Every structure is written in C-alpha cells, then in structure tokens.
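Message: I would love a firmer grasp of how sequence relates to backbone shape in proteins. Thank you; the sequence and its tokens follow:
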Amino acid sequence: MTILNGTAQRPARAYTHSIPLRWDRSPEDIAADTERLIGTVTKVYDEIGRLCLDAVSVENTLRALANIKIHYAARRHALDFPQYVSPCRAVRLASAQADKRLCHLDVELSMRHDVFLRIAALQKKLPDENVSREEKRFLDRLVASGRRNGLHLCAETREKIQKTSKLISELSIEFNKNLNEDNTFLLVSRQQLDGMSESFLSGLDADEASGAYKVTLAYPHYFPVMKRCRDPETRRKMETAFHSRCKEANTIILERLVALRAELAALLGYSCHADYVLEVNVAKNVANVDAFLNALQKTLEPVGARERKYMMALKKRECLTSGRCFDGRLNAWDLPYYMDQVERRKFAVDKDKLLEYFPLDAVTEGLLGIYRDLLGLRFSRVLSASVWQQDVRVYDAHDADTGEEMGRFYLDLHPREGKYGHAACFALQPGCKGAEGGRLLPAAALVANFTKPAGGLPSLLQHHEVETYFHEFGHVMHEICSKVTFSEFSGTQVETDFVEVPSQMLENWVWEKEPLRRMSRHYKDGSAIPEPLLDKLIASRVANTGLMNLRQVVLSKVDQSLHTNATADSAAVFAKLCQDILGVPATEGTNMMASFGHLAGGYDGQYYSYLWSEVYSMDIYFSRFKKEGILNPKVGKEYRRIILEAGGSVDGMDMLQSFLGRAPCQDAFFQCKGLISPSNATL
C-alpha cells in the first residue's frame, strides 16, 4: 500500500466490512451471477409476501427488506457497471444485458402487491413498535413508493404499469449503450486544424491511407477543436457529427420513452410525467420549475444579447481579415469558438500557457490534499486491488482523527473505445449498516475522459476539466462519507434537485487562489502559476455568463417540454428553444437530444436540477465557507456531518436550513454569475 499525504492507520475491522469487488468476471460469470442474485432477492420477497398480515413486524418485514436491499445494492453494480468501462466489448454487452435483467427485476420488485400489503399493514401498527427515526422514514418511503408505483390500484392497471415500466428500462439501457458504443471520427488535414496547438496535434493518430489526422468525438478531441480551430468548416463538421451521434436510433428511442412515460403518468393519475417525478423533489411541481426558469431567463436575456453582439463583431472582424464571407449570424459551431475568444480578449487568459500548469498528477495530488484537509480524511493508494483496466487507480479513505476506514474509490480518467463518454461518479457499493452488523463500506468510481499522455507530454488539463474533476469528486465524497442505516438513503440517493448541491458547491475551490496553487505546477519545472495569469483566470469566471446559463435554461426547458406532453418531436423542440432563448439556431439535420444521456439516465423531467441546485450550492459556499474560511476544517467537518454523512436520510431542505441556520436564498447565485439578483426571494 502506497501512502499519499500521511501514514496509513489500521482500519477498525470490528466495525466495518466490505463486499470484495471483482472486475475479472467473464461474460458467462456475469450472466450466472446475475441469475443467482435474482434468485436470492426474489426468495426473500416471496418469504415476506407469504407472511400473515397480522404477523408482520419490524424484524420480519422492515429489517428483512432492508437487509436484502443492502445485499442487492452491494452486488448489483459489479454486474451492471462494466458496461460503461470494460475494455472488452463482450463484457460490456454482457453487463448491459445484466442491467436489463436487473432493471426488469427492479420493476417486478417494485410491483409486488403482496409485499406492499405487508408494508402497509406494518405502517398501520407502527405505534406498537419501537423504531428509530430513520426506520420510520424508510417505512414511510416504502409505502409512498408503493403508491407511486400504483400498488393501490386494480390488478389490470398494475399489470399495465409493470409492462410499461419494463419497456422504459429496456429502452433507457439501449439509448445509453448506443452512445457508449459510438466510435465516430473525422479525418482532418493539418491545414483544417489551423489554430490547434502542437501538443494537441501530437496526441492525434494519423490515417495510414490519407495521412490526415483522426479526430474523434471524445471530449479531449471535440472541445479543444470547437474552441480553438480557426477553420469554421472544420468546426461545422465536428459539431454536426457530435450532435448526430446515434441520431436515427436514439431519436426513435427517446420519443418512444417520452410517450411511455406520459402513459405511465396517466395510469398513476398524474397530468404529466414531469409532475410525477417532481412530486418527490424539492421543487414539487412543474409550476415551480417553470417560474424558476422563467425568472432566470428574464434576468439573463439582456446579458446574453450583449454577449451575442460582441461575438458577432468578433466574427465579422475575423471574416474580413481572413477573406471569408460573413453570414451575419452566430451558428452553433461558432459559439464555443467565440466564447473562447471572449475569454482571451476581454480577460486575456492565455489558455495554452495555463494548460501547462495543470498536469493531471499535480491536479490529483492537490485535489486529494484539499479534500483531505477540508473534510478530515486521509487517502491511501491501493496497488493490489482488482481493477477493470490497468490505468485505473484505487484509493482507500480513512477518518484522519480516528483512523476509521471510510470506503474505497476508483479513478478511471482517460478515454478509450467503448468507455462511457462523459464524466460521472458511479456508486458501486452503498455506505450503510450491513446485515452482518457494523458498517458496510461504500465504494464509488470517478469516470472521466481527460487527455492521455502523448508525444512526451503528460496529461494536461484545461481549467474547465479541473472544475469537472472537482465536481465529480464531490459526488465521490458524498458516497464515501455516507453513514446511514439503509442502502436506500446511501450517499447521493437524495432528491434529484439536491444531488448536485455538494459537488457544485465544491467547484468553487477551483476559482480561488490558494486551492489553485495547491493543485497546479508547471509540468516541466514545477513552478507556480504566475500571479497575473492566476488573477486573469479568476476574473474570467463571469465570462459568457449570459449565454452559458441560457443554454442550461434551454436544455431544462426542452426537458420540461418533452415531459409535459404525451408526444414529442425532440429535434424540433430543441431547435425552437435554441433560437427563441439562446438566439443561436440548432445545426440543420442534427438532434442534440439523441445524444443527451441525461434524458435516459435518470434526469428525465429533472434537468433543471443543475441550475436549481446551484442556487443552494452558492448559498452554502458564500454564507459559510467564503465567510469563515474556504479551507476551514471546522466548517468542512460540519459540512461533512450535516450534508454528506446524512445522505438521503434527511430532506434536502432540512439539511440546508440546518447548515445555513436559515432558509436558502438566491443572492449568492446571482453574485457568482456577476448579475444583480432580481429579488432576495427564498426557494
């Protein structure tokens, strides 16, 4: 075991245990283990379903369910996670098939009318039982979920709900499998990559036949080209290809999902799918989300108009200088490029120079050190752990004061064929009280697509990638710090419009001098970022505030539009709102929604959550950390205890009020964006 930033302490084995996570399963192993898990879980549900209604108790019903849910959660992700990361296509396909089987099981378990009747009977006799606050919350959640699944309805309706829910699960898996397996690339000449740095070009493969560069649609290729390439035709081709990924297959799947979700909501007595999913969120209903998005849009529109005007002037000047025809508008493939130009011209941020100060190893070392000091943790590199690919790094986390073992996390940071194409935290094992006593240790994986070392250069991160790294690691810490009784409440299993709060709050550290110094050094000589460059970077935080946030409003409103109707033309809805709100047309022939994984990955009707959560996250940061010290361990440990350890065992709003000492408000959110708050209304 290699030690990072401290001495490893022996974990308290008497109080913690973990389920060994293996990543060497063959496709046959995955299939067999899936069937075995299904059998084990189904058997326990059958036993509960056979209980006499007057014989149900906390022990034979509530705790029996809790224990099998922990057993299931601790083993499921070893089967369904490889589809996102395994280098072997056969394993990925077997894992996707396992996910489909387990999603079917999820639906079947959620529709167990016999088990629901036992849970409801237990709830009625609860006053006679001695239960904890969290046990009561768990029981109430089970009953409420049963009703939200229609278990109080007639058998015919329940059968329709189950059939529809299974189909939704299958289609969602297929949507994301298509994206994961997409390997589209473009062949581009050196001349067509005018403006790209030598370090970028050196990392590209060349096509043997033509000698052209092979440019993929993975993030480390796509975003640098869109931001830096001077040739608008190259950017147009890249943007068109990127937003045409899986267009034919996934457009059909998405629009079928929209229709099925509407059918399901109607069967359950809701006016639309969005109202159904929002009922259990902080926002509660479509009207509140609409009011929030409309108010934000109104505040941002004048800012966006000024930004478009400035970018249009930049484009016109560049066209005149280069002899290209000026088309009189901003296109989708222009937006990232001129946003980058704004940062360079208005804020004088030299991104090529800045890149040299963020080698991945330095960022990782600094990130772990900051989280260590802030949250009172210690991280130890594990060299002997099973991994799915040789580049994956594994760490154990311990409490810095007591030495208590907290959990394990995996870092899988570079792109490869067949791998999940975005950045995300995947929960692999819940942090909760286990059936064998003590605490089940949580495990999580941070999956990203940062540039690989190439051409003699280390992996160098753009600042926005550093921000992404910090964000996703915030989710990892939410998982690792979890200390709840039930797997249902572990880690990030909070309201969807609260789940981004902890990770978004911690993004603020990459905009402050002291943390930035800790996570950076020049890749050649280890020197610090020059003070003027640091000042310019921090000042650039408000660059393109209007258009960047209006784009989030667009995506949120597209999502709401799709999920407040029974049918949808997803490309047309996206194109209309892009033009109406962003003032930039969608590229003809594309459909960004066909590659928008959030709509098939749990954010359906809830994409607004990113903006909604940001209001809370900024309030936390400015009201507590900025005021009392961004690296103040006292505040950090309080944050860990109140927000991270509680998981979903407490309502998000209650956690916020406990940590803030008052109801949250929007002022800090608008302050961070460089805007004037329209009001100090609370949410």
User: Anything to note?
Assistant: The CA atoms of residues 359 and 541 lie 21 Å apart.
